[in-house]
Description:
By secondary structure, the first copy, chain A, is α+β, with helices and mostly antiparallel strands. In chain A, helix 1 crosses helix 10.
Amino acid sequence: VKVGVLGGGQLAQMMALAGFPLGIKVIALESTQDCPAGLVTDVVVGDYTDQQKLKELAEQVDVVTYEFENVDVPSVESIETPNVYPAPNALSISQDRILEKCFFDSISVPTAQYFPVDSVQDLQQAIEKIGLPAILKTRRFGYDGKGQFMIKAQEEIEQAFSELGAKNLIVEQKINFDREVSCIAVRAVSGETAFYDLVENVHVGGILRTSTVITENSNVNQLAKSYAEKVLTELNYVGVIAIEFFEVKGKLIANEMAPRVHNSGHWTIEGAVTSQFENHLRAILDLPLGSADTVGYPMMFNVISKHPEISEILKIPYAHCHVYGKQERQGRKLGHITLSAINSESLTQEVKLLGSLLKE
Amino acid sequence: VKVGVLGGGQLAQMMALAGFPLGIKVIALESTQDCPAGLVTDVVVGDYTDQQKLKELAEQVDVVTYEFENVDVPSVESIETPNVYPAPNALSISQDRILEKCFFDSISVPTAQYFPVDSVQDLQQAIEKIGLPAILKTRRFGYDGKGQFMIKAQEEIEQAFSELGAKNLIVEQKINFDREVSCIAVRAVSGETAFYDLVENVHVGGILRTSTVITENSNVNQLAKSYAEKVLTELNYVGVIAIEFFEVKGKLIANEMAPRVHNSGHWTIEGAVTSQFENHLRAILDLPLGSADTVGYPMMFNVISKHPEISEILKIPYAHCHVYGKQERQGRKLGHITLSAINSESLTQEVKLLGSLLKE
C-alpha cells in the first residue's frame, strides 16, 4: 500500500515512519531530495503545483494526502485519481481566516469577534466595535505568527494596515485567554472518529514551544471533543485535524484549524496508544482507527534553532528524541523531545532536567 | 551517525526504524536487496563472510552489530575498525551449546544437566546419568527447534544420534518446566545496564508464538535480572542480550542466550518506555540508556506462515501490527502483533478477539 504526501518535511517523515510497520510506504513530493522525508523514504522531486509531478506521484500511490495546509487547492483538485484526503473543502476553509471563522460560526463553535479589512476605514470601524488590543492578520498564508500585527493603540492602525500589505486582511478581537489548547481529532473513511486528549500549548514569538497533555478529565476536554466532532461531521472530513482554541474561564473559543497532522500532536508517538501519524494513515486508507487514549503523563518540547547534545537529553530516562535531520537555522523547528512520565510529579522533575538543556 | 548490521531481516528492519528519530542511520549487510531491512533503509548486498563486503560496510559506519548469533566469528574478528558490539566472545559462547552451558556454570547460573556427545556410547552413558526423556541437540547452529531430538525411550538413542549428524552433539536433561521465560537485558559501553520485565514465552513446534510480560513484581523477575546482570558483567557485554530460562517451582534454569535483540523482546516497541531496538543502538553508540519500564499490560503474538487481514487486526483498538514485508511460507515469521492493555482483564478480552483472527 502506498501513500503520496504533498510535502517532504518532518510531518511526512514521521508519517513514513508510522507507515512502515503496517506495510504502508509513504512517498513524498518535495522540491528537493534533501528533506526530512528523504532521509527515510522515497521522494518525487518536484513542485506540488507542477501538474506533471502531481500526476507522477498520483499514479504510483493508493491515496494522496498533504502535510501543510497552504497547498494549492486547484492543484489538489486536479488529481482525479486516487482519492485525496482530507478533501479540498477543508483546505479552502483553513487557508482563509474569514472562511474559517464563518465556518465555525455556521456550526456554533465560538470564535473571537472579527471583521474583514480591505481599507483603513474598515479597520477603524472594526476597532470601534471590538476595541483594543486587536490583531490584524492576513487572510491567507500566515504561519508561526507571521502575517500578524497586534494593534495596541489607535496610532498603530495605519502602520499595521500598510505593513500587512493593505489588502485581504482580517482583524480579530484579542482574546485574553487563560491558556491556549488544541484538540487533535481523526475521522476515517468509514466515519469512525477518535479524539486525543486536549493539550495546553505555549507559544513564544508565534512558534509552538511546548504541548502538555491535559490528563484530568476536565469539562474543557469534553467541550473540545464536542466541537471537534461537529467540525469533522460537517466537513465529512477524512484524516487527522488539529483545532486550536483559546480557553477562557472554562469556555473555548476556536482560533484556527489545520487539516493535517500537527505539531501539537507529536506527543502521541509515545504518549498515546496510537500516534496521530498512524491514525492519519489508517483514516485515509479506510482502516479501523487505533485507540487515542493517553499513556502516562506526556509533554512535548520543540527543538528550535539549535540542536541540543543528544547524549545529554537521553540522560533523562523517559525522554524520547526526534531529530528531523535539518540544518540549524534561527527559528527553525529541528526536532522535538517527548517526556513521558508515570505521574505528574515525575513529569515536573523531568521538565526541570530538560529545561536546563534546551536553550536556543 | 551510522550503524552497520550484519543481516537484513526483521531485526535489522526494526533497528533501522528505531534509529531514524535519533538521527541514526542503519545500514544492513545482506545477500539480497529484497529483504525486510531493504524496505526501510540501505543495504550493502553481499555475504557476511565476504571480507571485501564486510570492509565496505565497516568503512561507512561508526559501529558494527549483528542481528543473528550464527555470524561467522573470524569474519567479525577481521573487522579492525570500527568497534563491533556485542564483542565476539559472546558470539563464540552462544554459538556452542557446550561453551554456553560451561559459561553459565562458571558464573553459578543454574542449567540443566548436560553431557557432550560424540558417540553412541557417550549418549548411552549420559542418559544413564540424566534419565529420560532427554534432548539431544547439535552443539552449533540450531534455531527455532531445528537440530533437536527429544529422546523418550532407549530404543530411540541410535536413531536420534544418526539423525542429528552423529557428531558435535550435546544431550541435556529434559526440564519439566512450569513455564518458559526470557529476560531482555542491555548494557552500554559505559557499563550502564537496564533490564526489561521478564516475559513468559509459548513455543509451538519450536517456534515462538507468544510472549506475555510478567508485570507482577515477582521473585522470579528479580532472580532473572540478577542472573542477567552476572552474564552482562562477566562478558563485559555491550548491547541487548536475551536469556531464556525454564521456570521450575520459582527457580530459574538457564536454557540459552542470544547476543542480540530478540523476538521475545518485540513487545518493548509499544510496551516499554524505550524499545529493545532503541536501547541496543544507544548501548553500542555509547549513549545513555532509556528506561526499560513496562507500560501497561503488553503481550506479543508472532504472525507465522500466513498474513492475517490487517484491517481485521486493527479493529482491536489496542493492537499494533508489525508487518515485515516477507513472502508467506510455512513456518516463517512474517510479522508480529502487540496488544497493549490498561489492565489484565482488558488484555484477556483483546487476546480472545485476536485469537479468532490468527490462524496459520
